[in-house]
């Protein structure tokens, strides 16, 4: 997403009206102008006019979650999502970070986009969780002293069970209505394999042949939203190649779906890939979005449970998918959906944000947990693995006995008649 030549025009779209302020999580937390979209745009303008990227300036950019709530709220159509991605690319290219910062960032970007590396981590992490060492380490505070980012990674890791592997094709149940490709994701496939299994079952029960390419890799979302543009383009090209043969790609992770819908812009300046990227972006669908387009066929069985639905930022703001998940949940007999206060305030996950800005992320996670708990729901439903980890961790901190599940898992429980215990027995 080159965009550097467009930066002055994009900056000029902002009329500094302030509509973004109450929607910006960091401004809500601290009330600091430079930690609002309007303030950051002012800093971007200074940089365009020749001001070097100083440490304090970069800190304000780093504190931005990239949640895009401001994009939804802006009456002037300011493309803040483009602005922050272009600016983060500048930061990556121009600003020298400390050795410790570089080491932590490199560790994250050399681990999380690579499924095999995450898979290799599963065994030791599972043993660590089962041994009781987890409680001792947390009580000691040793990881916090070593690195708040490493402590955040350890704290956020969900309880790990067995990880069933999906076949390359799951056949439609009943008459075939469609053939779809399915992105399994990196964190989703290794930390939440049950979500992928539920997604494939739901699609099959709704009459879809589900194609799951074995050689698929990272979609590039973390890199794209962190200013690592060349890395993101490489991941994007591989994803385009992998899914080019299918008519529709269904994605169950909000951040991944958002990134894939941005491939058209990411590879716009690459003559060999621009049209191919545009075609892939056009056929990418979030799971809820696709299921509503397809229409229901499988019988919904009663599921007497009260759920709170969480709007993931990259689903609600980036993709505009809000009503579809609610419609799917509302169609399940005996299921009650409750709304969460401050739905547009990010939970603090934001891709890598809760790793690189753990203190601010913790404040936002706690704020979200309070609002989730206030609904009185038995189950929180979210459509992004980062959100699930972040909010589950905050709920545990609060001592709230609320289970967490993906929309796909709720639908799967209803379509297969598993009952409420299949969902609410797994407390956060």
Write the layout of secondary structure elements.
Layout: H1 7-12, H2 25-30, H3 37-48, H4 55-62, H5 69-73, H6 80-94, H7 99-109, H8 115-131, H9 133-140, H10 142-146, H11 148-156, E1 169-170, E2 178-183, H12 187-191, H13 193-205, E3 208-211, H14 221-224, H15 229-243, E4 249-251, H16 254-261, H17 263-266, H18 274-282, E5 284-286, H19 287-294, E6 306-309, H20 313-316, H21 323-330, E7 336-339, H22 353-356, H23 358-374, E8 379-382, H24 385-398, E9 403-406, H25 407-415, H26 421-424
Helix pairs in contact: 13-25, 19-21, 23-24
Describe this structure in words.
It is built from 26 helices and nine strands. It is an alpha/beta fold and 428 residues long. Among the domains are: 89 residues, Orthogonal Bundle (Fumarate Reductase Iron-sulfur Protein, Chain B, domain 2), CATH 1.10.1060; 126 residues, Rossmann fold. Strands 1-3-2-4-5 form a five-stranded mixed β-sheet. The protein is globular. The two termini are 38 Å apart. GO terms for molecular function: 4 iron, 4 sulfur cluster binding; glycolate dehydrogenase activity; metal ion binding. It is an enzyme of class 1 (oxidoreductase). This is Glycolate oxidase iron-sulfur subunit. Component of a complex that catalyzes the oxidation of glycolate to glyoxylate.
């Amino acid at each position: 997403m080159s965009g550097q030549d467009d930066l002055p025009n994009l900056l000029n779209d902002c009329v500094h009206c302030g509509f973004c302020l109450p929607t910006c999580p960091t401004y809500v937390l601290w009330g600091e102008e430079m930690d609002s979209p309007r303030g950051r745009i002012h800093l971007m303008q200074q940089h365009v006019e020749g001001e070097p990227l100083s440490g304090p300036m970069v800190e304000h950019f780093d504190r931005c979650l990239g949640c895009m709530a401001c994009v939804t709220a802006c009456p002037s159509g300011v493309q803040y999502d483009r602005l922050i991605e272009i600016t983060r690319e500048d930061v990556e290219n121009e600003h020298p970070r400390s050795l410790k910062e570089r080491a932590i960032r490199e560790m994250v970007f050399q681990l999380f986009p690579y499924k095999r590396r995450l898979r290799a981590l599963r065994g030791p992490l599972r043993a660590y969780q089962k041994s009781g060492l987890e409680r001792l380490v947390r009580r000691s505070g040793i990881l916090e002293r070593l690195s708040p980012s490493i402590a955040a990674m350890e704290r956020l890791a969900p309880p790990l069970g067995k990880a069933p592997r999906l076949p390359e094709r799951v056949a439609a149940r009943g008459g075939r209505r469609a053939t779809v490709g399915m992105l399994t994701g990196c964190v989703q496939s290794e930390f939440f394999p049950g979500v992928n299994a539920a997604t494939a079952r739901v699609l099959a029960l709704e009459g879809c042949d589900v194609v799951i390419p074995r050689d698929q890799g990272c979609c590039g979302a973390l890199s794209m939203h962190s200013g690592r543009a060349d890395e993101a383009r490489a991941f994007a090209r591989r994803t385009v190649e992998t899914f080019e043969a299918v008519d529709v790609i269904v994605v169950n992770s909000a951040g991944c779906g958002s990134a894939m819908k941005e491939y058209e812009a990411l590879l716009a300046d690459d003559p060999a890939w621009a049209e191919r990227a545009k075609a892939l972006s056009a056929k990418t669908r979030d799971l809820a979005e696709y299921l509503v387009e397809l229409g229901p066929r499988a019988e919904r069985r009663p599921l007497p449970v009260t759920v709170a639905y969480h709007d993931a930022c990259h689903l609600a703001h980036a993709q505009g998918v809000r009503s579809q998940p609610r419609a799917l949940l509302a169609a399940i007999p005996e299921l009650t959906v409750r709304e969460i206060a401050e739905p547009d305030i990010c939970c603090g996950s934001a891709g890598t944000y809760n790793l690189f800005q753990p203190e601010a992320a913790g404040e936002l996670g706690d704020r979200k947990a309070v609002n989730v708990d206030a609904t009185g729901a038995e189950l929180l439903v979210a459509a992004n693995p980062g959100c699930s980890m972040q909010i589950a961790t905050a709920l545990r901190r609060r001592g709230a006995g609320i289970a967490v599940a993906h929309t796909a898992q709720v639908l799967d429980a209803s379509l297969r008649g598993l009952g409420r215990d299949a969902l609410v027995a797994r407390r956060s």
